[in-house]
Amino acid sequence: xxxxxxxxxxxxxxxxxxxxxxxxxxxxxxxxxxxxxxxxxxxxxxxxxxxxxxxxxxxxxxxxxxxxxxxxxxxxxxxxxxxxxxxxxxxxxxxxxxxxxxxxxxxxxxxxxxxxxxxxxxxxxxxxxxxxxxxxxxxxxxxxxxxxxxxxxxxxxxxxxxxxxxx
Length: 167
Prior knowledge:
By secondary structure, the chain is α+β, with helices and mostly antiparallel strands. 23% of the residues lie in helices and 35% in strands.
């Protein structure tokens, strides 16, 4: 699970985000939770986000792949798609996640594919299909994100001893 996988981005996405001083693979990743669960974002664009999560280490007491792990992968992939759709001036905030679990899985790797159902100016909805290694559907999810303006960096005050940073 310690394997390093770099996310593939289309050239136009790399160019759009260039010069902002951001590490795209880190920004568009599963974050600390996803890292603990072994989530990998393999491809990312506004039209398609592909990722995986191992079943091992993400099971419930009966030894089955945990529904919450499905939700983590689905929300990660849908959020990445929504953020890329929104562009560098906005952030995507999840407001609704729905997961329908179709079949149990006891071992292997789950693959998720997020595709847009709606992409607008203030919201984006992605359908996420999770499949097992045989290509059988494990879960169907839908994530809706609100698209909000990104916080603008505040200029540093030249006065000594004062801090205007939020707490």
